[in-house]
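Researcher: Predict the fold of Aminotransferase.
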Amino acid sequence: MSNHLSDRVQNMSTSATLAMAAKARELRNEGKDIIGLSLGEPDFNIPDFIKDAAKQAIDDNYSSYTPVDGYADLKTAISNKFKRDNDLDYGLNQIVVSTGAKQSLFNVAMVVLNPGDEVILPAPYWVSYSDIVKLAEGVPVEVLTQIDTDFKMTPEQLEAAITPKTKMLWFSSPCNPSGSVYSKEELEGLAEVLKKYPDIYVVSDEIYEHINFAGGHVSIAGIDGMYDRTITVNGVSKAFAMTGWRIGYIGAPEWIAKGCTKLQGQVTSGANAIAQRAVITALEAPVSKIQFMIDKFHERRDLVLGLLGEIEGFNLNVPEGAFYVFPDISAFFGKTLNGFTINNASDFSLYLLEHANVATVTGEAFGNPNCIRISYAASEKELKEAIARIKAVL
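Model: Structure tokens for Aminotransferase follow.
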């Protein structure tokens, strides 16, 4: 009876990262030794000091419905975090806590976009951006970036993509899937273009903010003239290894925050009570408490780049953040390996799964048909074995 589903759902893509993870689990259940490099999920345990805060919250009977936009003391911790890490001054009425940063993004799309509004997406972009925009009846406008510019959109590309229907620009820095990090100078270049178009708003997804090897994170909301038109999105899934706790948040102009609270009140209401209490402790801690994870990701990045660099046909750049590499593998298109013809990135990713037992994600899901995403949020042993298998089957 799938034909009775709404057009909205039938026209929506399935998350490619989740689909590949499900396929990998299916093959594992059949007895195959699959190494999963498809999910963007840290392989570290949550630091004990955060676990202790959650246990204390249970003992303190935090079991009631929470305020729709989040506990006031959590929003105070978020406000202090914005000041400390980003030099941004968001009041409590500008902050909304949601069930993960994905819901934060969905909220913003639903409260800002009208049917037909265009949203510029520098490609590659996070896999869910395009479908979230479409669900809000907006129109995604992809701007394909190149590996030789480290997959970063230039001011000239931004200017060329703007039309009278442009309502928003969405991007992430550090970027999922490319690991690219925009510098202050690069963000200032984009801001100079946007200043000509005061009715365009910016969604800045900064969920990977702390996993940054470039020497400092810069928020576009802190660039002159951008604060009142930027929605800064963040959360605790990546840097604190709290993916399953589902807490994300925004700092935004008050009218957008109010709209998100209104929408969320009819969809999920407030986020999980225990998770919110734990996040207060996480955000109040100095970044040094999680530095061990950041250092380990940096080591893994260098390991993976070195090993992949030994495989002919992989075109690599050096990502400066997050925990992904995004190699251009178009040199393999049109080739037949072990009886398997590779015509595109999806074929290449499927070939690695079937012949090397390594799960990656096609770049097509991120708006770039020439690349695949490899997550190095795995142990060094797994990474070495996975890349050895890839090398063997290529």
